[in-house]
Amino acid sequence: MKILKYILPVLFISAMVASCDTDDEAVEVQNPYTVSPQYYQNLRDYKATDHSIAWGWFSDYTTSYSMATRFLGLPDSLDICSLWGGIPTNDSTLADGHYVPDVYKEMKFVQQTKGTKMVVPTIVRIRTFPEFYDSVWVAKSNPDSAMQLLANHLLAQIFVTGVDGIDLDYEPEGDPLSGSNMDYFVKYLGKFVGPAASDSNKVVAKLGKIRWVNKKTAAGKDSLVKETYYEDYTIVGDPTKLLCIDYYSAAPSANTLPYTNWYVNQTYGGSPGGKPFSSCPASLVVYTENVGDNWKAAECGKLLTYARYKPATGRKGGFGAFFMHRDYINAGYGCLNYANMRHGIQIQNPAIH
């Protein structure tokens, strides 16, 4: 009781002070960095020009806690982003997408407002698709039909999600979708995406969807089961969508040239200047470094070497990085993050003041 004798007056005074303090206090906060609509327009205009591009494979964006794994954290001047982590979507029924609406919203902002092209990579090995290889190529002895069905499957994902094209990762390693079969595959895709595409070309593809259905268990109990089904989806050729081929040891042939926007060389520590075939224009070849393995090294290995490289005549297609987001932690050249990618873009295409 003696304790209460002293505590109660203190509480009373504190309450009176608190009740009388009704004025809002100004709090100093850091305002978010904003840019004008004209900045974004200038950015889109720049990306629409004929220039050596900046390319990057991007992953780990299904969680967006750090700007290092967010689309908003990517360098603004990045031209093409290959979605190595899959296709973000706001459609929970798409079988071949990642349902991450917040990530999808950021990707669409970077795509539409900043003008960065989003392409979907796929390793070109038809044996990894038994529904096309085993069931059609082998069982029906019909390679052409199998390749068309695979192409339609990939195209449907691109068109329904509104991304900007396809990135064919050509590393056959004994897969039959190589050599002349790769030529056929690219020519077929080229009817719908890439520089030779035409809106007169149409095809109905099967689009994978998922749904939850109620089924009985062996014990007769109701159970919700995830089920994949397919809907018809009409694809109409669109020459504004990109057809890119990236390659390492095996290279695509000259027969792919009429249908391809960019040849992305996994140079990975090698010397720039090589081409997939002798008649390939240097302006279509992009040289890339494996930043995933070399992010701690000076200049992320040879990333800036590829940015500096100039062919004897004309210009190169560009430079880029695999797992470019691992450069996010690097600071320097006046940059707080993505120092090597940002500096490489400036080296390759110096700003005009």
Fraction of residues in helix: 25-40%
Q: Between the first and last Cα atoms, what is the distance in angstroms?
A: 77 Å
Low-confidence stretches: 1-20
The gyration radius over C-alpha positions equals 26 Å
Helix and strand element order: HHEEEEHEHHEHEEEEEHHEH
Largest sheet: 8 strands, parallel, barrel
SS strand fraction = 15-25%
Description of the molecule:
The protein has 353 residues and is of the alpha/beta class. The protein has nine helices and twelve strands. Strands 1-2-5-6-9-10-11-12 form an eight-stranded parallel beta barrel. A two-stranded parallel sheet has the order 3-4. Helix 4 (130-138) packs antiparallel against helix 5 (143-161) and helix 5 (143-161) packs parallel to helix 6. It starts with a helix and ends in a 5-residue tail after the last helix.
Summarize the structure.
With 353 residues, the protein is an alpha/beta fold. It has helices spanning 2-20, 37-47, 101-112, 130-138, 143-161, 180-189, 291-294, 303-308, 339-348, and strands spanning 53-58, 80-83, 88-89, 98-99, 117-123, 165-170, 202-216, 222-236, 242-247, 262-265, 285-290, 318-322. A hairpin with a 5-residue loop joins β7 and β8.
Annotate the secondary structure layout.
Elements: H1 2-20, H2 37-47, E1 53-58, E2 80-83, E3 88-89, E4 98-99, H3 101-112, E5 117-123, H4 130-138, H5 143-161, E6 165-170, H6 180-189, E7 202-216, E8 222-236, E9 242-247, E10 262-265, E11 285-290, H7 291-294, H8 303-308, E12 318-322, H9 339-348
Parallel strand pairs: 1-2, 1-12, 2-5, 3-4, 5-6, 6-9, 9-10, 10-11, 11-12
Antiparallel strand pairs: 7-8
